[in-house]
Amino acid sequence: MKPVWIIDDDRSICWVFEKALSREAIAHRTFSNTADALKALNDAPPQVVVSDIRMPGGSGLELLEQVRRRHPSVPVIIMTAYSDLESAVSAFQGGAFEYLAKPFDVDHAVELIRRAMGESVRHDIVAESTETPPEILGQAAAMQEVFRAIGRLSQSQATVLITGESGSGKELVARALHRHSPRASREFVAINTAAIPKDLLESELFGHERGAFTGAAALRRGRFEQADGGTLFLDEIGDMPADLQTRLLRVLSDGHFYRVGGHQPLKTNVRIIAATHQDLEQRVKQGLFREDLFHRVNVIRLRLPSLRERREDIPLLAKYFLQKSARELGVEAKRLSGAALKYLGGLDFPGNVRQLENLCHWLTVMAPGQHIEVKDLPPEFRDATAQSATENWTVSLEREVANLLNRGEQGVIDELNKQFEKALISKALAHTGGRRIEAANLLGMGRNTLTRKIQELKIDGGSVED
Fold first, then answer.
1. Is the dihedral of CA 230, 236, 242, 243 positive or negative?
2. CA distance linking residue 310 with residue 360, whole number of Å
3. 3-state DSSP assignment of residue 190
4. Which pLDDT tens digit goes with each residue over 296-325?
5. What is the DSSP code string of 113-153?
6. Is 194 helix (H, G, I), strand (E, B) or coil?
7. Does the predicted TM-score (pTM) go above 0.70?
8. Mean confidence (pLDDT) of the chain
9. How far is CA 155 from the centre of its chain?
């Protein structure tokens, strides 16, 4: 294997690395200045470069620039005794693998070098394709159903309602429906009805006449006019204010509308694709969404699965998003290890595909090296297993409450409290082997209270005596 290069004008630092790398049987070579290292670079590249940032006759950043230009696959670790923000930023902007502040722990430095060596070897072996896949990806059966539905709807003019959790890709599907429709040559216009204040939403949708209200200095065409002949995507339609629901229903009924402040009816020919993460049937029952409008938009319903329903797609999506972020930033795409992919596959991703995309962008910017391990993930993802368990428990509880209320059940809180207490006490008694005093202490209640609840809830209470 090619040697690791140590470049530092401080002889004691070179000596420390020589001893540590010899102990680890890692081939190495030391230089006291950048000029000698650059001469040697003409002969053969090293496996890894570890360089001080400030040296007489040439800086480590200058060396970093030369190495990255001539041998971009060689990882460079920059050392400095000047632990300032400017040095760190300059090192990473120059493409450094990692930044090592002096004084450093020798074992940590050797571990860092080993990681860099592993990265260098992978560069020598792996040449990954950077071919850009399509925007909508999915090998899971649930996504194949979505693809089939888009295909079936390709020649249809029918209104489509896309449902699914936030971040699951509803707008991407809407764009695909437009792109494969007879209206593909006309405009696709999107509007998030939940993101625009109520007093501005009407003007956004229908436009306004000059002088219609304070600030309306000129005539403005609304989204219905802009999308004429094409497709209008109404995102988060479940959050649309009630009075605008009435106006929208009128347009969907006959294609006619008025601009705000206008008296001349206008006609538009648009295909409506709506989307929501809300349960529209439930909002209809609550009086928050018009039933007649619901039936107008719910002609064909297309449900997008959450990411936790298509976990097998996580590796495919992660690879795509890492490559996408790398292209945007003009850097080389990073890769997730098998362990990291397995770990991510076990997470629930409440933010769905959007959350995974944001994670991949974070990793492209922040993760050291090209090969990403579990320890390189941001803290909130490393701690996500425990969080997911809590979230799953509360989500299940919310779902059960909703089911009970929808069935018209009475005394919901009393019934759920009984189930909750029974589960707590049963598990505590099982944990203590039936010892009631110990179980009561763990639960934070008195023994008499525990005994009474065991009787009331008909729990197998184990031994009475401890």
1. negative
2. 18
3. strand
4. 999 999 999 999 999 999 999 999 999 999
5. HHHHHHHHHHHHH-----PPPPSS---SHHHHHHHHHHHHT
6. coil
7. no
8. 85
9. 33
